[in-house]
Design brief:
Rossmann fold; N-(1-d-carboxylethyl)-l-norvaline Dehydrogenase, domain 2; eight-stranded mixed sheet; 14% strand; globular; binds acetoacetyl-coenzyme A; binds nicotinamide-adenine-dinucleotide
Length: 289
């Protein structure tokens, strides 16, 4: 199926929203990025310039590619800036209630049947997000990118119970146009990726809590012994410890098995505001980087 998307609205200017916007703009698509919190947009704008300039320096892209991509991205502090978009990708906090409220608003604001409302959720039910969107339920789909978006190849495509075939096909086509490999998964808590990855990360926190080894040793053992590019604690910091707790809560609640409860130590880091790279410290300290 040919993809005809001309303008994408990205909600959330954090690590995922920023990456999705960058990759879409590099694929020749116009993008408008919205974030509700002051400062997030400036940070995202700065990162776009920095990451694209680094790619030019490394001769991965030309200066003209960079200029073109930056010209295609605009930023807005209000969702009113989404007028005229024909696709939305939501990448806000991993909280079902906050996502439901947003999708209710998006469905009302963008009533055109052709506009697809995709969510980058890591774990939350697509069917339940769609329920919040009322009549627009068939236009809701999971379009799950991976971090860092410009580097990672996969987009996990998740069909909710009411998602139309046409919307799934168009999501696959758009992911391919963005240079990604789409793979389909069913709408179960955590889909495939986080059903498998997040319990591994959670177990690493249990190992740390029980003093099985120091953080560097836990990560080093999994890197050198299992050929993972990052150890599980380092990866948790990279993802965001708050996001890890949210995902474990969804697995725990959705699958009903106590083995999925978030590790108390992981929750403690979050309570202390140590969210990982994005807050300057998590398991490790990034304040000097
Ligand atoms: N944004 C954009 N590009 C980035 C980046 C970032 N945050 N971090 C690294 N890169 C790019 C670098 O620019 C470099 O690009 P080139 O090859 O074009 O020069 C490339 O990635 C490799 O970077 P480095 O050489 O600096 O470092 P590295 O070799 O250690 O790779 C890494 C960094 C790609 C992040 C690698 O460590 C890795 O693959 N880690 C695992 C990532 C992973 O598992 N992601 C999935 C997380 S789970 C998820 O996303 C789903 C969820 O719902 C939670
Ligand atoms: P993040 O904390 O880096 O960014 C989230 C952004 O959303 C913030 O800038 C915040 O200001 C903004 N935001 C929060 N509520 C909002 C609202 N109601 N309206 C507008 N903006 C709002 O988070 P992230 O890591 O980019 O994750 C975003 C989504 O992507 C989550 O659902 C997460 O589970 C998913 N995800 C994360 C990763 C990862 O590795 N971090 C990977 C894949 C998917």
């Amino acid at each position: 199926m040919a993809d005809t998307v001309k303008k994408i609205g990205v909600v959330g200017a954090g690590q995922m929203g920023g990456g999705i916007a960058q990759v879409a703009a590099m694929a020749g698509i116009e993008v408008v990025v919205h974030d509700a919190f002051p400062g997030a947009i400036d940070k995202c704008k700065g990162l776009h310039s920095k990451l694209l300039a680094r790619a030019v320096e490394k001769q991965k892209i030309t200066q003209a590619d960079m200029d073109g991509a930056l010209k295609r991205i605009s930023y807005t502090e209000s969702l009113d800036g989404f007028k005229g978009v024909d696709w939305v990708v939501e990448a806000i906090v991993e909280d079902a209630k906050v996502k439901h409220d947003l999708f209710q608003k998006l469905a009302t604001m963008l009533p055109d049947e052709k506009v697809v409302l995709a969510t980058n959720t890591s774990s939350i039910s697509i069917t339940q997000i769609a329920a919040a969107a009322g009549d627009a339920a068939h236009r809701i789909v999971g379009m799950h990118f991976f971090n860092p978006v410009p580097v990672m190849q996969l987009v996990e495509v998740i069909r909710g119970m009411q998602t139309s075939d046409n919307v799934v096909d168009r999501t696959v086509a758009l992911a391919e146009r963005m240079g990604k490999t789409p793979l389909k998964a069913n709408d179960r808590p955590g889909f495939v990726s986080n059903r498998v990855l997040m319990p591994l990360i959670n177990e690493a926190f249990h190992a740390l809590m029980e003093g099985v080894a120091e953080p560097e040793a836990i990560d080093g053992i999994m890197k050198l012994g299992c050929n993972h590019p990052m150890g599980p604690l380092r990866l948790a910091d990279f993802i965001g410890l708050d996001t890890c707790v949210h995902i474990m809560n969804v697995l725990h609640e959705g699958l009903g098995n106590p083995k999925y409860a978030p590790c108390p130590l992981l929750k403690q880091y979050v309570a202390a505001g140590r969210l990982g790279d994005k807050s300057g410290a998590g398991v490790y300290d990034y304040s000097k980087k």
